[in-house]
Amino acid sequence: MGEFDLIARYFARPGPTAGATVALGIGDDCAVLTPAPGHQWLVSTDMLVEGRHFLSTVSPRRLGHKALAVNLSDLAASGGSPRVCFLSLALPKVDEAFLAGFSEGLFALADAHGVVLAGGDTTAGPLNINITIMGEVPHGQALLRSGARVDDDLWVSGLLGDARLALEVFRGTVSLPGEAFDAVRQAMELPQPRVALGRALRGLASSAIDVSDGLAGDLGHILHRSQVGARLHLADLPRSSVLGGMPEDLQRLCLLTGGDDYELVFTAAAQDRSRVLEAAREAATPVYRIGRIEREPGLRVVDGEGRLLDLTLQSFDHFKS
Amino acid sequence: MGEFDLIARYFARPGPTAGATVALGIGDDCAVLTPAPGHQWLVSTDMLVEGRHFLSTVSPRRLGHKALAVNLSDLAASGGSPRVCFLSLALPKVDEAFLAGFSEGLFALADAHGVVLAGGDTTAGPLNINITIMGEVPHGQALLRSGARVDDDLWVSGLLGDARLALEVFRGTVSLPGEAFDAVRQAMELPQPRVALGRALRGLASSAIDVSDGLAGDLGHILHRSQVGARLHLADLPRSSVLGGMPEDLQRLCLLTGGDDYELVFTAAAQDRSRVLEAAREAATPVYRIGRIEREPGLRVVDGEGRLLDLTLQSFDHFKS
To answer: Which of A113, A143, A214, B88 is deepest in the core (most CB within 10 A)?
Structure first.
Protein backbone atom coordinates (compact mmCIF):
# COMPACT_ATOMS: atom_id res chain seq x y z
CA MET A 1 0.00 0.00 0.00
CA GLY A 2 1.32 3.46 -0.87
CA GLU A 3 1.04 6.76 0.93
CA PHE A 4 -2.11 7.95 -0.84
CA ASP A 5 -3.93 4.63 -0.46
CA LEU A 6 -3.05 4.62 3.22
CA ILE A 7 -4.55 8.07 3.72
CA ALA A 8 -7.62 7.18 1.68
CA ARG A 9 -8.21 3.93 3.57
CA TYR A 10 -7.56 4.97 7.16
CA PHE A 11 -7.76 8.71 7.48
CA ALA A 12 -9.93 10.33 4.78
CA ARG A 13 -13.61 10.17 5.70
CA PRO A 14 -16.25 11.53 3.36
CA GLY A 15 -18.69 12.44 6.13
CA PRO A 16 -17.81 15.31 8.40
CA THR A 17 -14.81 16.77 6.57
CA ALA A 18 -16.69 19.86 5.43
CA GLY A 19 -18.99 22.00 7.51
CA ALA A 20 -19.29 25.34 9.24
CA THR A 21 -15.63 25.40 10.25
CA VAL A 22 -13.90 23.22 7.67
CA ALA A 23 -14.52 24.63 4.19
CA LEU A 24 -12.04 22.14 2.74
CA GLY A 25 -10.34 19.21 4.47
CA ILE A 26 -7.99 16.41 3.43
CA GLY A 27 -6.96 16.37 -0.23
CA ASP A 28 -5.52 19.76 -1.14
CA ASP A 29 -2.28 21.59 -0.28
CA CYS A 30 -3.93 23.25 2.71
CA ALA A 31 -7.11 22.83 4.70
CA VAL A 32 -9.38 25.88 4.50
CA LEU A 33 -11.02 26.95 7.78
CA THR A 34 -13.71 29.56 8.26
CA PRO A 35 -13.47 31.28 11.66
CA ALA A 36 -16.61 31.85 13.73
CA PRO A 37 -17.34 35.57 14.18
CA GLY A 38 -16.20 36.98 17.52
CA HIS A 39 -13.92 34.04 18.29
CA GLN A 40 -10.20 33.44 18.56
CA TRP A 41 -8.35 30.28 17.59
CA LEU A 42 -6.45 28.21 20.11
CA VAL A 43 -3.66 26.06 18.68
CA SER A 44 -1.44 23.46 20.31
CA THR A 45 0.83 20.73 19.03
CA ASP A 46 2.28 17.61 20.68
CA MET A 47 4.75 15.05 19.41
CA LEU A 48 4.66 11.49 20.77
CA VAL A 49 7.67 9.18 20.64
CA GLU A 50 7.83 5.53 21.66
CA GLY A 51 9.50 4.96 25.01
CA ARG A 52 8.94 8.60 25.98
CA HIS A 53 5.19 9.12 25.67
CA PHE A 54 4.02 5.56 25.26
CA LEU A 55 5.36 2.06 25.65
CA SER A 56 5.63 -0.51 22.89
CA THR A 57 3.05 -2.58 24.81
CA VAL A 58 0.21 -0.10 24.21
CA SER A 59 -2.52 -1.23 21.83
CA PRO A 60 -2.77 0.77 18.58
CA ARG A 61 -6.35 1.74 19.46
CA ARG A 62 -5.33 3.18 22.80
CA LEU A 63 -2.38 4.93 21.19
CA GLY A 64 -4.68 6.63 18.69
CA HIS A 65 -6.85 7.74 21.59
CA LYS A 66 -3.95 9.02 23.65
CA ALA A 67 -2.27 10.92 20.80
CA LEU A 68 -5.40 13.02 20.39
CA ALA A 69 -6.22 13.12 24.11
CA VAL A 70 -2.98 14.85 25.09
CA ASN A 71 -3.69 17.56 22.53
CA LEU A 72 -7.32 17.94 23.57
CA SER A 73 -6.05 18.32 27.12
CA ASP A 74 -4.03 21.41 26.14
CA LEU A 75 -7.11 22.85 24.50
CA ALA A 76 -9.19 22.03 27.58
CA ALA A 77 -6.71 23.92 29.76
CA SER A 78 -7.26 26.99 27.59
CA GLY A 79 -11.05 26.70 27.70
CA GLY A 80 -11.35 25.98 24.00
CA SER A 81 -14.04 24.25 21.96
CA PRO A 82 -12.23 21.69 19.78
CA ARG A 83 -12.74 22.03 16.03
CA VAL A 84 -10.03 20.43 13.86
CA CYS A 85 -6.82 18.46 14.10
CA PHE A 86 -3.90 17.63 11.81
CA LEU A 87 -2.03 14.33 12.11
CA SER A 88 1.55 13.67 11.05
CA LEU A 89 2.58 10.06 11.28
CA ALA A 90 5.97 8.45 10.67
CA LEU A 91 5.78 4.66 10.50
CA PRO A 92 8.61 2.15 10.05
CA LYS A 93 6.39 0.30 7.56
CA VAL A 94 2.77 0.13 6.47
CA ASP A 95 1.21 -2.02 9.20
CA GLU A 96 -2.49 -2.38 8.44
CA ALA A 97 -3.43 -3.80 11.84
CA PHE A 98 -1.69 -0.87 13.51
CA LEU A 99 -3.32 1.67 11.21
CA ALA A 100 -6.78 0.18 11.62
CA GLY A 101 -6.55 0.25 15.42
CA PHE A 102 -4.83 3.60 15.63
CA SER A 103 -7.32 5.36 13.37
CA GLU A 104 -10.27 3.77 15.20
CA GLY A 105 -9.03 5.01 18.55
CA LEU A 106 -8.30 8.45 17.19
CA PHE A 107 -11.63 8.87 15.43
CA ALA A 108 -13.64 7.55 18.38
CA LEU A 109 -12.26 10.32 20.57
CA ALA A 110 -12.43 12.90 17.77
CA ASP A 111 -16.09 12.10 17.19
CA ALA A 112 -16.83 12.33 20.92
CA HIS A 113 -15.51 15.90 20.87
CA GLY A 114 -16.70 16.99 17.42
CA VAL A 115 -13.15 17.24 16.07
CA VAL A 116 -12.55 16.88 12.32
CA LEU A 117 -9.25 15.48 11.02
CA ALA A 118 -8.67 18.12 8.36
CA GLY A 119 -5.21 17.20 7.10
CA GLY A 120 -1.85 15.71 7.86
CA ASP A 121 1.21 13.97 6.55
CA THR A 122 2.48 10.41 6.46
CA THR A 123 6.00 9.18 5.90
CA ALA A 124 8.23 6.21 6.47
CA GLY A 125 10.51 6.61 9.49
CA PRO A 126 10.92 5.74 13.16
CA LEU A 127 7.45 5.73 14.77
CA ASN A 128 6.45 9.29 15.56
CA ILE A 129 3.03 10.85 16.01
CA ASN A 130 2.44 14.58 15.89
CA ILE A 131 -0.98 16.15 16.23
CA THR A 132 -1.80 19.83 15.95
CA ILE A 133 -5.17 20.71 17.44
CA MET A 134 -7.21 23.84 16.84
CA GLY A 135 -10.21 25.05 18.79
CA GLU A 136 -12.15 28.23 19.25
CA VAL A 137 -12.95 30.44 22.20
CA PRO A 138 -15.03 33.64 22.41
CA HIS A 139 -12.70 36.63 21.99
CA GLY A 140 -10.69 37.33 25.14
CA GLN A 141 -12.00 34.32 27.12
CA ALA A 142 -9.06 31.91 26.77
CA LEU A 143 -7.87 30.53 30.13
CA LEU A 144 -4.21 31.40 30.63
CA ARG A 145 -1.49 30.41 33.05
CA SER A 146 -0.88 34.00 34.03
CA GLY A 147 -4.03 35.06 35.87
CA ALA A 148 -3.73 33.50 39.36
CA ARG A 149 -4.20 36.03 42.18
CA VAL A 150 -3.25 35.98 45.85
CA ASP A 151 -5.89 34.19 47.97
CA ASP A 152 -7.40 32.38 44.99
CA ASP A 153 -8.43 28.79 45.66
CA LEU A 154 -6.36 26.10 43.99
CA TRP A 155 -8.36 23.29 42.35
CA VAL A 156 -7.68 20.08 40.48
CA SER A 157 -9.99 17.79 38.50
CA GLY A 158 -10.26 14.01 38.63
CA LEU A 159 -7.60 11.79 40.17
CA LEU A 160 -3.84 12.21 40.18
CA GLY A 161 -0.97 9.76 40.08
CA ASP A 162 -2.45 6.56 38.62
CA ALA A 163 -0.62 6.92 35.30
CA ARG A 164 2.69 7.20 37.11
CA LEU A 165 1.83 4.22 39.29
CA ALA A 166 1.19 2.19 36.13
CA LEU A 167 4.54 3.29 34.73
CA GLU A 168 6.24 2.09 37.92
CA VAL A 169 4.60 -1.31 37.45
CA PHE A 170 5.92 -1.46 33.87
CA ARG A 171 9.33 -0.46 35.20
CA GLY A 172 9.17 -3.30 37.71
CA THR A 173 9.56 -1.14 40.83
CA VAL A 174 5.99 -1.90 42.02
CA SER A 175 3.73 -4.88 41.54
CA LEU A 176 -0.05 -4.82 41.55
CA PRO A 177 -2.79 -7.47 41.30
CA GLY A 178 -4.33 -7.78 37.82
CA GLU A 179 -7.48 -5.75 38.34
CA ALA A 180 -5.70 -2.89 40.08
CA PHE A 181 -3.08 -2.87 37.34
CA ASP A 182 -5.76 -2.75 34.64
CA ALA A 183 -7.31 0.28 36.35
CA VAL A 184 -4.11 2.32 36.60
CA ARG A 185 -3.01 1.19 33.16
CA GLN A 186 -6.25 2.57 31.79
CA ALA A 187 -5.45 5.92 33.43
CA MET A 188 -2.10 5.89 31.63
CA GLU A 189 -3.32 4.71 28.24
CA LEU A 190 -6.83 6.18 28.01
CA PRO A 191 -6.70 9.64 29.59
CA GLN A 192 -9.95 11.61 29.36
CA PRO A 193 -9.26 15.21 28.36
CA ARG A 194 -11.28 17.64 30.48
CA VAL A 195 -12.72 19.60 27.58
CA ALA A 196 -16.17 20.15 29.07
CA LEU A 197 -14.68 21.39 32.35
CA GLY A 198 -12.31 23.80 30.61
CA ARG A 199 -15.21 25.27 28.67
CA ALA A 200 -17.35 25.56 31.80
CA LEU A 201 -14.52 27.45 33.55
CA ARG A 202 -14.40 30.28 31.00
CA GLY A 203 -14.89 33.56 32.78
CA LEU A 204 -14.60 31.79 36.13
CA ALA A 205 -11.10 30.29 36.53
CA SER A 206 -8.40 32.94 36.91
CA SER A 207 -5.74 30.56 35.52
CA ALA A 208 -5.45 26.98 34.32
CA ILE A 209 -3.00 24.40 33.02
CA ASP A 210 -3.25 20.71 32.29
CA VAL A 211 -1.18 18.30 34.35
CA SER A 212 1.02 16.49 31.86
CA ASP A 213 4.48 16.66 33.47
CA GLY A 214 3.41 16.31 37.12
CA LEU A 215 1.32 18.53 39.41
CA ALA A 216 4.24 20.30 41.11
CA GLY A 217 5.98 21.22 37.87
CA ASP A 218 2.86 22.26 35.99
CA LEU A 219 1.50 24.24 38.91
CA GLY A 220 4.94 25.85 38.95
CA HIS A 221 4.24 27.26 35.47
CA ILE A 222 1.09 28.97 36.79
CA LEU A 223 3.00 30.39 39.76
CA HIS A 224 5.85 31.60 37.59
CA ARG A 225 3.66 33.23 34.94
CA SER A 226 1.32 34.71 37.57
CA GLN A 227 4.20 35.83 39.84
CA VAL A 228 2.66 34.27 42.93
CA GLY A 229 3.28 31.27 45.21
CA ALA A 230 1.01 28.51 46.54
CA ARG A 231 0.34 26.30 49.53
CA LEU A 232 -0.75 22.78 48.62
CA HIS A 233 -2.43 20.31 51.02
CA LEU A 234 -1.03 16.87 50.32
CA ALA A 235 -3.88 15.11 52.11
CA ASP A 236 -6.41 16.82 49.85
CA LEU A 237 -4.90 15.59 46.59
CA PRO A 238 -7.47 13.28 45.02
CA ARG A 239 -6.23 9.73 44.46
CA SER A 240 -7.69 6.36 43.52
CA SER A 241 -8.16 3.65 46.11
CA VAL A 242 -5.36 1.73 44.39
CA LEU A 243 -2.87 4.57 44.79
CA GLY A 244 -4.25 5.34 48.28
CA GLY A 245 -3.18 1.83 49.33
CA MET A 246 0.46 2.36 48.37
CA PRO A 247 3.32 3.44 50.66
CA GLU A 248 3.37 7.14 51.56
CA ASP A 249 6.55 7.92 49.61
CA LEU A 250 5.26 6.33 46.45
CA GLN A 251 1.96 8.19 46.79
CA ARG A 252 3.81 11.51 47.04
CA LEU A 253 5.95 10.70 44.03
CA CYS A 254 2.93 9.78 41.93
CA LEU A 255 0.70 12.64 43.11
CA LEU A 256 3.20 15.46 42.88
CA THR A 257 5.58 14.53 40.06
CA GLY A 258 3.63 11.80 38.27
CA GLY A 259 3.03 13.09 34.79
CA ASP A 260 0.52 11.89 32.21
CA ASP A 261 -2.43 12.82 34.45
CA TYR A 262 -4.17 15.11 31.93
CA GLU A 263 -6.27 16.64 34.67
CA LEU A 264 -6.78 20.40 34.94
CA VAL A 265 -5.25 22.39 37.77
CA PHE A 266 -6.78 25.83 38.03
CA THR A 267 -7.34 28.80 40.29
CA ALA A 268 -10.50 30.76 41.07
CA ALA A 269 -11.51 33.47 43.52
CA ALA A 270 -12.62 32.07 46.89
CA GLN A 271 -15.98 33.83 46.51
CA ASP A 272 -16.60 31.77 43.35
CA ARG A 273 -16.38 28.42 45.17
CA SER A 274 -20.00 27.46 44.58
CA ARG A 275 -19.84 28.59 40.94
CA VAL A 276 -16.82 26.33 40.40
CA LEU A 277 -18.68 23.38 41.89
CA GLU A 278 -21.67 24.18 39.69
CA ALA A 279 -19.46 24.35 36.57
CA ALA A 280 -17.91 21.01 37.50
CA ARG A 281 -21.36 19.47 37.90
CA GLU A 282 -22.41 20.78 34.48
CA ALA A 283 -19.26 19.28 33.02
CA ALA A 284 -19.84 15.99 34.90
CA THR A 285 -16.23 16.24 36.15
CA PRO A 286 -15.24 15.97 39.81
CA VAL A 287 -13.06 18.81 41.13
CA TYR A 288 -11.20 19.16 44.43
CA ARG A 289 -9.93 22.16 46.33
CA ILE A 290 -6.28 21.40 47.10
CA GLY A 291 -4.74 24.66 48.34
CA ARG A 292 -4.48 28.38 47.97
CA ILE A 293 -2.47 31.00 46.12
CA GLU A 294 -0.11 33.05 48.31
CA ARG A 295 1.96 36.16 47.81
CA GLU A 296 5.27 34.52 48.74
CA PRO A 297 6.83 32.93 45.62
CA GLY A 298 7.39 29.17 45.48
CA LEU A 299 5.35 26.07 46.18
CA ARG A 300 4.85 24.89 49.78
CA VAL A 301 3.39 21.43 50.36
CA VAL A 302 1.93 20.72 53.82
CA ASP A 303 0.84 17.42 55.36
CA GLY A 304 -2.40 16.63 57.18
CA GLU A 305 -1.16 18.35 60.34
CA GLY A 306 -0.18 21.51 58.46
CA ARG A 307 3.57 20.74 58.68
CA LEU A 308 5.67 21.94 55.77
CA LEU A 309 7.22 19.04 53.88
CA ASP A 310 10.79 19.26 52.67
CA LEU A 311 10.47 18.09 49.10
CA THR A 312 12.94 18.33 46.31
CA LEU A 313 10.66 17.89 43.39
CA GLN A 314 11.58 17.33 39.81
CA SER A 315 8.93 17.52 37.14
CA PHE A 316 9.22 15.52 33.99
CA ASP A 317 11.68 16.85 31.42
CA HIS A 318 12.11 15.04 28.13
CA PHE A 319 15.82 15.73 28.02
CA LYS A 320 16.52 14.95 31.66
CA SER A 321 14.61 11.89 32.80
CA MET B 1 20.23 21.73 29.20
CA GLY B 2 16.59 20.76 29.79
CA GLU B 3 13.52 21.04 27.61
CA PHE B 4 12.44 24.46 28.90
CA ASP B 5 15.92 26.00 28.71
CA LEU B 6 16.23 24.70 25.17
CA ILE B 7 12.98 26.38 24.13
CA ALA B 8 13.92 29.61 25.92
CA ARG B 9 17.38 29.73 24.38
CA TYR B 10 16.67 28.76 20.78
CA PHE B 11 13.00 29.19 20.01
CA ALA B 12 11.30 31.77 22.25
CA ARG B 13 11.85 35.30 20.99
CA PRO B 14 10.48 38.29 22.84
CA GLY B 15 10.11 40.44 19.74
CA PRO B 16 7.43 39.51 17.27
CA THR B 17 5.53 36.85 19.26
CA ALA B 18 2.52 39.08 19.83
CA GLY B 19 0.81 41.25 17.28
CA ALA B 20 -2.31 41.62 15.19
CA THR B 21 -2.59 37.88 14.59
CA VAL B 22 -0.85 36.30 17.58
CA ALA B 23 -2.54 37.41 20.79
CA LEU B 24 -0.42 34.92 22.76
CA GLY B 25 2.50 32.84 21.54
CA ILE B 26 4.98 30.44 23.14
CA GLY B 27 4.55 29.81 26.87
CA ASP B 28 0.97 28.73 27.53
CA ASP B 29 -1.02 25.58 26.81
CA CYS B 30 -2.23 26.99 23.50
CA ALA B 31 -1.33 29.89 21.25
CA VAL B 32 -4.19 32.36 20.86
CA LEU B 33 -4.77 33.70 17.36
CA THR B 34 -7.08 36.51 16.30
CA PRO B 35 -8.44 36.02 12.76
CA ALA B 36 -8.53 38.95 10.34
CA PRO B 37 -12.12 39.89 9.41
CA GLY B 38 -13.28 38.48 6.07
CA HIS B 39 -10.47 35.93 5.86
CA GLN B 40 -10.17 32.17 6.04
CA TRP B 41 -7.30 30.21 7.57
CA LEU B 42 -5.14 27.91 5.49
CA VAL B 43 -3.39 25.14 7.43
CA SER B 44 -0.83 22.58 6.34
CA THR B 45 1.56 20.27 8.15
CA ASP B 46 4.70 18.43 7.01
CA MET B 47 6.89 15.92 8.81
CA LEU B 48 10.57 15.60 7.85
CA VAL B 49 12.59 12.47 8.56
CA GLU B 50 16.30 11.93 7.97
CA GLY B 51 17.08 9.83 4.89
CA ARG B 52 13.63 10.57 3.46
CA HIS B 53 13.39 14.35 3.33
CA PHE B 54 16.97 15.30 4.00
CA LEU B 55 20.39 13.67 4.15
CA SER B 56 22.61 13.53 7.20
CA THR B 57 25.06 15.72 5.27
CA VAL B 58 22.80 18.78 5.28
CA SER B 59 23.90 21.68 7.49
CA PRO B 60 21.60 22.42 10.45
CA ARG B 61 21.01 25.94 9.12
CA ARG B 62 19.85 24.66 5.75
CA LEU B 63 17.71 22.03 7.45
CA GLY B 64 15.97 24.73 9.50
CA HIS B 65 15.34 26.65 6.29
CA LYS B 66 14.04 23.62 4.40
CA ALA B 67 11.72 22.42 7.17
CA LEU B 68 9.86 25.72 7.03
CA ALA B 69 10.22 26.13 3.26
CA VAL B 70 8.33 22.93 2.42
CA ASN B 71 5.44 24.13 4.59
CA LEU B 72 5.48 27.64 3.13
CA SER B 73 5.37 26.01 -0.28
CA ASP B 74 2.03 24.34 0.55
CA LEU B 75 0.70 27.67 1.68
CA ALA B 76 2.00 29.34 -1.49
CA ALA B 77 0.15 26.78 -3.61
CA SER B 78 -3.07 27.78 -1.85
CA GLY B 79 -2.45 31.51 -2.32
CA GLY B 80 -2.10 32.17 1.40
CA SER B 81 -0.37 34.94 3.32
CA PRO B 82 1.79 33.19 5.95
CA ARG B 83 1.10 34.13 9.57
CA VAL B 84 2.24 31.58 12.18
CA CYS B 85 3.94 28.23 12.49
CA PHE B 86 4.28 25.53 15.14
CA LEU B 87 7.42 23.42 15.42
CA SER B 88 7.67 19.93 16.91
CA LEU B 89 11.19 18.62 17.19
CA ALA B 90 12.42 15.22 18.31
CA LEU B 91 16.19 15.15 18.89
CA PRO B 92 18.39 12.21 19.90
CA LYS B 93 20.15 14.55 22.34
CA VAL B 94 20.52 18.25 23.07
CA ASP B 95 23.07 19.32 20.45
CA GLU B 96 23.66 23.04 20.85
CA ALA B 97 25.50 23.49 17.56
CA PHE B 98 22.63 21.79 15.75
CA LEU B 99 20.00 23.86 17.58
CA ALA B 100 21.81 27.14 16.97
CA GLY B 101 22.12 26.48 13.24
CA PHE B 102 18.67 24.99 12.85
CA SER B 103 16.89 27.85 14.63
CA GLU B 104 18.92 30.45 12.68
CA GLY B 105 17.92 28.94 9.36
CA LEU B 106 14.31 28.62 10.40
CA PHE B 107 13.99 32.15 11.75
CA ALA B 108 15.78 33.71 8.78
CA LEU B 109 13.15 32.29 6.44
CA ALA B 110 10.31 32.96 8.91
CA ASP B 111 11.35 36.61 9.18
CA ALA B 112 11.57 36.94 5.41
CA HIS B 113 7.92 35.88 5.19
CA GLY B 114 6.59 37.54 8.35
CA VAL B 115 5.89 34.18 10.03
CA VAL B 116 5.81 33.98 13.84
CA LEU B 117 6.78 30.76 15.62
CA ALA B 118 3.83 30.68 18.02
CA GLY B 119 4.32 27.32 19.73
CA GLY B 120 5.62 23.80 19.48
CA ASP B 121 6.93 20.79 21.29
CA THR B 122 10.36 19.27 21.91
CA THR B 123 11.21 15.77 22.95
CA ALA B 124 14.04 13.28 22.96
CA GLY B 125 13.74 10.72 20.16
CA PRO B 126 14.97 9.83 16.68
CA LEU B 127 15.43 13.10 14.72
CA ASN B 128 12.06 14.25 13.44
CA ILE B 129 10.86 17.71 12.47
CA ASN B 130 7.19 18.58 12.11
CA ILE B 131 5.96 22.04 11.24
CA THR B 132 2.35 23.16 11.02
CA ILE B 133 1.91 26.38 9.11
CA MET B 134 -1.08 28.70 9.13
CA GLY B 135 -1.83 31.54 6.76
CA GLU B 136 -4.77 33.64 5.74
CA VAL B 137 -6.58 34.27 2.50
CA PRO B 138 -9.55 36.54 1.72
CA HIS B 139 -12.75 34.50 2.03
CA GLY B 140 -13.28 32.20 -0.95
CA GLN B 141 -9.99 33.07 -2.70
CA ALA B 142 -7.88 30.01 -1.79
CA LEU B 143 -6.27 28.38 -4.83
CA LEU B 144 -7.39 24.75 -5.05
CA ARG B 145 -6.37 21.71 -7.03
CA SER B 146 -9.87 21.27 -8.37
CA GLY B 147 -10.47 24.26 -10.63
CA ALA B 148 -8.59 23.46 -13.87
CA ARG B 149 -10.76 23.81 -16.99
CA VAL B 150 -10.41 22.45 -20.50
CA ASP B 151 -8.20 24.70 -22.69
CA ASP B 152 -6.57 26.39 -19.68
CA ASP B 153 -2.87 27.08 -20.04
CA LEU B 154 -0.56 25.02 -17.87
CA TRP B 155 2.22 26.98 -16.15
CA VAL B 156 5.14 26.28 -13.87
CA SER B 157 7.42 28.61 -11.89
CA GLY B 158 11.21 28.59 -11.63
CA LEU B 159 13.33 25.63 -12.64
CA LEU B 160 12.58 21.93 -12.30
CA GLY B 161 14.76 18.92 -11.63
CA ASP B 162 17.90 20.32 -9.99
CA ALA B 163 17.06 18.90 -6.56
CA ARG B 164 16.69 15.43 -8.05
CA LEU B 165 19.93 15.82 -9.96
CA ALA B 166 21.67 16.67 -6.67
CA LEU B 167 20.16 13.58 -5.09
CA GLU B 168 21.54 11.45 -7.92
CA VAL B 169 24.99 12.88 -7.24
CA PHE B 170 24.65 11.95 -3.56
CA ARG B 171 23.51 8.49 -4.65
CA GLY B 172 26.61 8.18 -6.83
CA THR B 173 24.76 7.61 -10.11
CA VAL B 174 25.92 10.95 -11.55
CA SER B 175 29.03 13.02 -10.99
CA LEU B 176 29.29 16.80 -11.40
CA PRO B 177 32.09 19.33 -11.12
CA GLY B 178 32.19 21.23 -7.81
CA GLU B 179 30.50 24.44 -8.88
CA ALA B 180 27.69 22.69 -10.72
CA PHE B 181 27.16 20.39 -7.76
CA ASP B 182 27.00 23.37 -5.37
CA ALA B 183 24.30 24.92 -7.55
CA VAL B 184 22.02 21.87 -7.69
CA ARG B 185 22.70 21.07 -4.05
CA GLN B 186 21.46 24.54 -3.18
CA ALA B 187 18.25 23.82 -5.10
CA MET B 188 17.81 20.68 -2.96
CA GLU B 189 18.74 22.18 0.39
CA LEU B 190 17.54 25.80 0.11
CA PRO B 191 14.28 25.73 -1.84
CA GLN B 192 12.59 29.14 -2.16
CA PRO B 193 8.85 28.81 -1.51
CA ARG B 194 6.83 30.76 -4.08
CA VAL B 195 4.71 32.65 -1.58
CA ALA B 196 4.62 35.96 -3.48
CA LEU B 197 3.62 34.20 -6.68
CA GLY B 198 0.83 32.23 -4.99
CA ARG B 199 -0.58 35.42 -3.55
CA ALA B 200 -0.36 37.21 -6.89
CA LEU B 201 -2.28 34.35 -8.55
CA ARG B 202 -5.37 34.73 -6.32
CA GLY B 203 -8.40 35.26 -8.51
CA LEU B 204 -6.31 34.46 -11.60
CA ALA B 205 -5.09 30.85 -11.47
CA SER B 206 -7.90 28.31 -11.85
CA SER B 207 -5.91 25.66 -9.94
CA ALA B 208 -2.51 25.26 -8.34
CA ILE B 209 -0.29 22.78 -6.49
CA ASP B 210 3.32 22.84 -5.38
CA VAL B 211 5.73 20.37 -6.95
CA SER B 212 7.08 18.34 -4.05
CA ASP B 213 6.77 14.76 -5.32
CA GLY B 214 7.58 15.39 -8.98
CA LEU B 215 5.82 17.37 -11.71
CA ALA B 216 3.99 14.42 -13.30
CA GLY B 217 2.60 13.13 -10.02
CA ASP B 218 1.64 16.50 -8.59
CA LEU B 219 0.08 17.67 -11.84
CA GLY B 220 -1.79 14.37 -11.71
CA HIS B 221 -3.50 15.56 -8.51
CA ILE B 222 -4.78 18.66 -10.31
CA LEU B 223 -6.03 16.53 -13.23
CA HIS B 224 -7.71 14.04 -10.92
CA ARG B 225 -9.41 16.63 -8.72
CA SER B 226 -10.41 18.76 -11.71
CA GLN B 227 -11.53 15.73 -13.80
CA VAL B 228 -9.53 16.80 -16.83
CA GLY B 229 -6.36 15.73 -18.69
CA ALA B 230 -3.31 17.61 -19.92
CA ARG B 231 -0.73 17.80 -22.70
CA LEU B 232 2.75 18.73 -21.53
CA HIS B 233 5.57 19.94 -23.79
CA LEU B 234 8.80 18.37 -22.56
CA ALA B 235 10.96 20.87 -24.44
CA ASP B 236 9.23 23.76 -22.64
CA LEU B 237 9.98 22.53 -19.14
CA PRO B 238 12.34 25.08 -17.58
CA ARG B 239 15.70 23.67 -16.51
CA SER B 240 19.05 24.96 -15.33
CA SER B 241 22.05 24.95 -17.65
CA VAL B 242 23.54 22.20 -15.45
CA LEU B 243 20.55 19.91 -15.92
CA GLY B 244 20.27 20.94 -19.59
CA GLY B 245 23.76 19.52 -20.15
CA MET B 246 22.83 16.07 -18.87
CA PRO B 247 21.76 13.05 -20.99
CA GLU B 248 18.19 13.17 -22.27
CA ASP B 249 16.94 10.28 -20.11
CA LEU B 250 18.31 11.79 -16.92
CA GLN B 251 16.76 15.16 -17.80
CA ARG B 252 13.36 13.54 -18.24
CA LEU B 253 13.66 11.70 -14.95
CA CYS B 254 14.61 14.87 -13.07
CA LEU B 255 12.08 17.15 -14.79
CA LEU B 256 9.05 14.89 -14.63
CA THR B 257 9.48 12.80 -11.50
CA GLY B 258 12.15 14.72 -9.62
CA GLY B 259 10.57 15.76 -6.39
CA ASP B 260 11.69 18.47 -3.95
CA ASP B 261 11.27 21.21 -6.56
CA TYR B 262 8.89 23.37 -4.51
CA GLU B 263 7.83 25.26 -7.60
CA LEU B 264 4.19 26.01 -8.34
CA VAL B 265 2.38 24.33 -11.20
CA PHE B 266 -0.89 26.08 -12.01
CA THR B 267 -3.53 26.60 -14.63
CA ALA B 268 -5.13 29.78 -15.93
CA ALA B 269 -7.47 30.71 -18.78
CA ALA B 270 -5.62 31.32 -22.07
CA GLN B 271 -7.12 34.82 -22.25
CA ASP B 272 -5.36 35.65 -18.95
CA ARG B 273 -1.88 34.96 -20.33
CA SER B 274 -0.68 38.55 -20.02
CA ARG B 275 -2.20 38.88 -16.54
CA VAL B 276 -0.27 35.78 -15.44
CA LEU B 277 2.97 37.25 -16.76
CA GLU B 278 2.20 40.52 -14.99
CA ALA B 279 1.52 38.69 -11.70
CA ALA B 280 4.80 36.79 -12.08
CA ARG B 281 6.66 40.06 -12.67
CA GLU B 282 5.09 41.57 -9.56
CA ALA B 283 6.17 38.51 -7.59
CA ALA B 284 9.66 38.62 -9.14
CA THR B 285 9.24 34.95 -10.03
CA PRO B 286 9.79 33.53 -13.51
CA VAL B 287 6.94 31.44 -14.92
CA TYR B 288 6.78 29.26 -18.03
CA ARG B 289 3.89 28.00 -20.12
CA ILE B 290 4.41 24.25 -20.42
CA GLY B 291 1.20 22.85 -21.84
CA ARG B 292 -2.56 22.89 -21.89
CA ILE B 293 -5.52 21.31 -20.14
CA GLU B 294 -7.52 18.87 -22.29
CA ARG B 295 -10.84 17.10 -21.93
CA GLU B 296 -9.38 13.59 -22.33
CA PRO B 297 -8.27 12.28 -18.91
CA GLY B 298 -4.60 11.49 -18.28
CA LEU B 299 -1.29 13.19 -18.85
CA ARG B 300 0.29 13.22 -22.33
CA VAL B 301 3.90 14.32 -22.67
CA VAL B 302 5.07 15.34 -26.16
CA ASP B 303 8.59 16.00 -27.43
CA GLY B 304 9.86 18.96 -29.45
CA GLU B 305 8.38 17.51 -32.68
CA GLY B 306 4.98 16.97 -31.06
CA ARG B 307 5.45 13.17 -30.79
CA LEU B 308 3.76 11.51 -27.84
CA LEU B 309 6.31 9.98 -25.48
CA ASP B 310 5.67 6.59 -23.94
CA LEU B 311 6.50 7.20 -20.31
CA THR B 312 5.79 5.08 -17.31
CA LEU B 313 6.10 7.63 -14.58
CA GLN B 314 6.25 7.07 -10.90
CA SER B 315 5.95 10.00 -8.56
CA PHE B 316 7.57 9.93 -5.18
CA ASP B 317 5.77 7.87 -2.55
CA HIS B 318 7.20 7.68 0.93
CA PHE B 319 6.20 4.06 1.36
CA LYS B 320 7.29 2.90 -2.09
CA SER B 321 10.58 4.48 -3.11
So the answer is: A143
